[in-house]
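Posting this for the archive.
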Amino acid sequence: MAGNPPLILQTERLVLALPSAEHLAVYTAYCASERSRFVGGPFDAAKAFEKLAAMAGHWTLRGYGRYVMTRRDGGAPIGHVGALHLETESLPEMTWTLWDPAAEGLGYAYEAAAAYARHAFGRLGFARMILRIDPDNARSCRLAERIGARLDPEADPPEWMPGAVTYLLSA
């Protein structure tokens, strides 16, 4: 990883900031909703807290991680985007999730994912990232392809996400 990552990234319409306590209420509501089904949910409030704490702690342990997306014009957080890197022997995994159903279909996930990919391949110096997606999540599969990821038919799904398809995104 080259240099220290900025604490905030900005796109035309979004601010991408480190996860914090101010995001917990919205994240907890997302985790309790049916929207979290593609990531193993729904989750109770304690599990939502644990997951957001892990998201925040990832920055301390790895020096990079997932950002929380908020519209630049203000308002509540709408989702998260960034790298999850649980096992150092594997590639970082790029993830995104829209917490707010009203944000879906407006291009926010694409805008955030494309910005994060530029950041990861530029400033962070990543050469490749994987993306693991539930095949029933057609919107995320299309987004993976739209940002340039290619399906890896040889990849086995992780134990914690049986049936997932894996995409490879290269610099």
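The chain has one domain: 8-170. The longest strand covers residues 77-84.
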